[in-house]
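To: structure subgroup
Subject: Chain for Friday's discussion

All,

I'm putting the inputs and outputs inline so they're searchable in the archive.
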Amino acid sequence: MTRQTSLATLGVLASLALLAPHAQAADTTPEPPPPPRYSAPAAAPLATAQGHIKAARWGAAIDELKRLNLERDADWNNLMGFSLRKQATPDLEGAQRHYDAALRLNPNHLGALEYVGELALMKKDLPAAEAYLARLQRACGIANPCEPLETLKKAVAAYKAAPK
């Protein structure tokens, strides 16, 4: 092969390489649209339990949470602790176990920090409540407002103001 033939072959190959992307893009057939979704998306697993909690149906919330059995979920443990603490005959030790589990799974879980602080006040343990309040302050950081923090601050202040 002569030098001139080699250069011509190289030129043809370069031209083909430049045209190749355009050849691939020439197919302008549109993708078919996805089929319509007629079913509603599945609800979050804790939604039913949260509904029971909003309605103060503690027993139903506990039953639903037990049915779900999501022990490795911080939110699940937080809701279980809350429901156990709020029921007619509070299970303070059970609530403590679940708040502790929630905080092991997520040390900055705002709800669990608020509720375990309230639990400490129920147990008449102001130093523990204040320690949870400090942790909650750090967890909230600069978030303003931080509703769990404000709620626990009010609960600690009310506890301190109450006659002993």
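Points worth raising on Friday:
The chain has eight helices and no strands.
The chain has a mean pLDDT of 84.

D.
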